[in-house]
Amino acid sequence: MFGICGKCVSVESEAEFRRLLCITTLMGDFYKRQLTAQRWLSSNGVAEADAATWVGATFATFAADSSAAEADTFSKLVEEQTPGGLNEMVWKAQEADESYQSLAYSLDAVFHRLVAGAEDLSLAPAAKRLKR
Questions:
Q1: 7: closest CA among 25, 32, 24?
Q2: Which residues fall within 8 angstroms of residue 82, CB to CB, at 6 or more apart?
Q3: Distance CA 31, CA 54 (A)
Q4: What is the 8-class DSSP label of residue 47?
Q5: Which helix (H) or strand (E) holds 132?
Q6: Which DSSP symbol is given to 71?
Q7: Percent of the chain beyond pLDDT 90?
Q8: Is the pLDDT at 1 greater than 60, yes or no?
C-alpha cells in the first residue's frame, strides 16, 4: 500500500517525524522553481505550453534520478556535475547567493512553527542573514 504513495520511513520520535514533515513543505518551492523556469523560457520566446512541457519533463527526470536515494545519493549527484560546466555554474551561483542557506533557515522556521504553533519572525531567512 505504501509503495503506491511513496516510501515509508519509520522514526523513533515525534520530533524526528516533525523534522521529516518539514521537507514536505518544499512542494511549493519545487513548483515555484518550475514556474520561474517556465516564465523565463516564455519571456525568451518559447511558447508557454512548450515551456511547461519541457520544464515538467526535465524536473521529473531530476526527481527520478534520486527517487531511491541512499545516504550519499545527493552528494554523488552534485559531485557528478561537470567541473566548470553549466550545471555546476548554476548551483555554485545559487550557493554564492546563499540560496541553500536560506532554504535551511526556512526549514528551521517551519520546524519552529510545527513545534510552537506559531511563527518566529527572527527565524525568517532574511532576518537570520541580517544577524550575522
A1: 24
A2: 88
A3: 14
A4: -
A5: none
A6: T
A7: 79
A8: no
The torsion angles phi and psi of 80, rounded to 5 degrees, stand at -80, -5
Task: Report residue 121: phi and psi, to 5°.
Answer: -65, -20
State the pLDDT confidence band at 132, using cuts at 50, 70 and 90.
low
Separation CA 87–CA 78 (nearest Å): 9
Distance of alpha carbon 41 from alpha carbon 44, whole angstroms: 5
* Distance in angstroms (rounded) separating the CA atoms of residues 76 and 6: 22
Q: 3-state DSSP call for residue 9? A: coil
> At residue 110, what is the residue type?
V
Tell me which amino acid residue 51 is: A
- Can you give the pTM of this predicted structure? 0.85
Q: Tell me, what's the pLDDT at 121?
A: 85
Cell triple for residue 93? Answer: 551561483
